[in-house]
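Reopening this ticket.

The earlier resolution said the output was attached, but the attachment link was broken on my side. Pasting everything inline this time so it's all in one place.
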Amino acid sequence: MPRSEDKTMVRTEISLFMRNEPGELGKFATLFGEAGINIDALTIQDASSYVQELFKGRGKSLKRIASAASYNSMRKDSAEFALVRILAEDGKTNKAIDLLSKNEYLFDMLPVIALELDNRPGELARISSKFGEEGVNINYVYGSVSSPDQKCLFVFCPEDIDQAAQIFKDY
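Inline output:
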């Protein structure tokens, strides 16, 4: 989790595709463990939903992002992969990027807002409402908590990272 004195932060999320096969998450986690990099947050989803979003984006813009053959291939291949999003331990993002590059993972990076929230009813509503009040759309969010007595770490991917960072600069 983020340091307690640094409750709000813009952090770098790493997104990658991983084979959707037994043992792949274990291999990935072992790489990080052996390198001494803790994973503060993680979410995994079927990559086919991500590919479907690409198709929707193409339809809205009427621009072809890839050839028709590529789209058909992506549809087929996406069922074989999972989309993994992680926040590496604060201060070790560059080490995580180097590790992924060295092990030939395909990945991307994106700034996100990571907030430590009190673990109580209504806290997520309060924070997510602030985004809405300021007109900032949240593309996705994920979170975790380790016990009822500890704070939760929530990761928000807003459409406008700079505006979102301003909203929570004094949080």
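Reporter confirms the inline version is readable. The two ends are 17 Å apart (CA to CA). The chain is about 40% helix and 30% strand.
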